[in-house]
Prior knowledge:
Chains A, B: One of its GO terms (molecular function) is transcription cis-regulatory region binding. Chains A, B: InterPro entries: HTH_LacI (IPR000843), LacI/GalR-like_sensor (IPR046335), Lambda_DNA-bd_dom_sf (IPR010982), Peripla_BP_I (IPR028082). Chains A, B: Pfam families: LacI, Peripla_BP_3. Chains A, B: Keywords: DNA-binding, Transcription, Transcription regulation. The structure is a homodimer. Chain A is α/β, with parallel strands linked by helices. Chain A folds into three domains: about 15-55, 434 Repressor (Amino-terminal Domain) (Orthogonal Bundle), CATH 1.10.260; about 70-165 and about 300-330, 3-Layer(aba) Sandwich (Rossmann fold); about 170-300 and about 330-345, Response regulator (Rossmann fold), CATH 3.40.50.2300. Chain A has twelve helices and twelve strands. In chain A, helix 1 packs across helix 2 (about 25-30) and helix 1 crosses helix 3. The structure holds a DNA duplex.
Amino acid sequence: MNRPSAKLTKQGIRAVAARAGVSTASVSRALNNPDAVSPSLRARIAQAIEAVGYIPHAPARILSSRRSRTLGAIVPTIDNTMFARGIASLQKYLSSVGYMLFLTTSGYDLDVELQQARNLIGRGVDGLVLRGDCHHEGLRKLLADNAVPFINVGIYQPDRPYPCVGTNNEAAAHRAAGHVIELGHRRIGIVSALQRNNDRAGARVAGFRRALAENGLELPPEWHVEVPYTLDDAREAARHLLNLKNRPTAVVCGNDVIAYGVLLEAERSGFSVPRDLSVVGFDDLDWSRHLRPSLTTIHVPTDETWQRAGEYLVRSLAGEQTIMHREIDFSLVVRESTAPPPAILK
Amino acid sequence: MNRPSAKLTKQGIRAVAARAGVSTASVSRALNNPDAVSPSLRARIAQAIEAVGYIPHAPARILSSRRSRTLGAIVPTIDNTMFARGIASLQKYLSSVGYMLFLTTSGYDLDVELQQARNLIGRGVDGLVLRGDCHHEGLRKLLADNAVPFINVGIYQPDRPYPCVGTNNEAAAHRAAGHVIELGHRRIGIVSALQRNNDRAGARVAGFRRALAENGLELPPEWHVEVPYTLDDAREAARHLLNLKNRPTAVVCGNDVIAYGVLLEAERSGFSVPRDLSVVGFDDLDWSRHLRPSLTTIHVPTDETWQRAGEYLVRSLAGEQTIMHREIDFSLVVRESTAPPPAILK
DNA sequence: GCGCATTCTGTAAACGGTTACATCCTAAGC
DNA sequence: GCTTAGGATGTAACCGTTTACAGAATGCGC
């Protein structure tokens, strides 16, 4: 490291300063707070920056200023349209306000999530975007100890003392189940996503169960299946339900991918949707309206949700007061995959 | 946090050193090169780290060591299954070797890509993963000036003096077209992705055209449609082709999403696939085998491709000699969506 | 022409690590 | 027993910025 003081100002802000004949402080000011330097200097500095091809060194900047204008996000997986869209939306918003995003994935593993959080904090992020409120017990302490603001996204829990933004999954699932109940169904099954480490999936199951209970309907254990996030698993679950002697006339699904699997399997098994079976999805992915039959589902404004999450943190960091719990409205989109049950089974 | 007894050692590595009664150098060594310190010291330091809740400050580390163990990646969009999977694979590999990934998106805009590259370089990334070889003319100079190694992923160009890893898109498209030609089709259309700023799409069109030319087949301009990456656009393109008085008997698509749109529209318009129309996709997404009819397509090993890209950079950075141009094999997967043309049109 | 309030700039001390080099210790070689 | 090689540890200079603080320049009223 010890270098004989041969040639100073080799690169960086000092090279720019030397070239423009000013101090490093002025260059820094011209960059971070242009109004603080005279127009003439600003021009000279801008030209020097151009000439030298200067790129500010973010780590040095972060080290010195203790702010990174970077947010971290930890999602279970990027290979899921809902998260991919959400991240894209968040990233777009952040770059529009001069922030960057550091993205990591946890694979639905709470220990990994905690480790990633530590990682991101060490990276100097100004705030953290988390998926849901199902975290490692040490995570909140970690965030508090390091004074890192955060927000839970994709859920709505107004009773918690920390921020969140998202739709009320319980209410949405309740609405989805209510839809088929209103159509006259009494025998309703559910194919949910894995509830383990996924409070979103859990809330949906809860809302579904509440709707059934409120209408005095039973849910035999064999009518509730949990599956991972693949078409194959969803099809297998559908096969299970359709082969039951005592099969449901409607199936509410934990998300659209699962619903798609159920549609495919129903068709393959010779059942006609919605004549023999009604299917409801959840998320309203792009292609859900293109399916045949098109899918009745719950529309969730993903883009808005994630952008709001970014807004919350950016505003908080700017010292503004903002809404801590923001609910994003869902809506039921009725399409072709649901209809009244066959009269004979009513 | 700590007492107002404003002395030294407020936090960071100095606090750990003080607590363990050693120098900061030893703590740093214990962290970066454990073998260099005695086991007893190592244990004392580990305990102190735990007690203080120390998290190494990455920016300071990067600043000081001039290495970040972080790679940057710039993709057009994250909201595309192929990229999402690739990024996930890359990220998984990198974390397995102690690296992190800084991900940004360019939205198919070369200027934005250049800006993102500048951004990432300023961030201190050790290397850069880029999509394809269609970049801003200033990008390579930027990378060279800053001595940042990079690799183009998703294409195969052994004649270039810089590294790449991917499938030969031209050859793959040639194979796809060859398949329907072998089936007896003579009237073949193509629905490609937008070629602008997308050399992958361009190479596929080129391979398709070569196959036609080699077989003495014509490609009327109206049989070649370019569409953005949405189902709606693909359906519209299909509508266009199917409504032609002089319509093709087979359609080769730039990717599976487009093929899916074509299938949907064909069905909606009363054409039966593959009886009236053969359809070939490209990418072999998860659900392509589930479609009805299941989709004949080109299988591309995305996961392997992106992992190899990471391997190349990590190895290069470690000083190892590695293969500069790596070809990833594609394969034609024949399913239900292709068949010989109707006899009458042969 | 002078004092004073305002800008505008420059100086230099952090920020939290790494690492070249110096120093200290221990144990083996003679 | 004395040297010395070599490993373990400490010291302190640096990495490239930001930002108090101080100093210089400018404009203004009198």
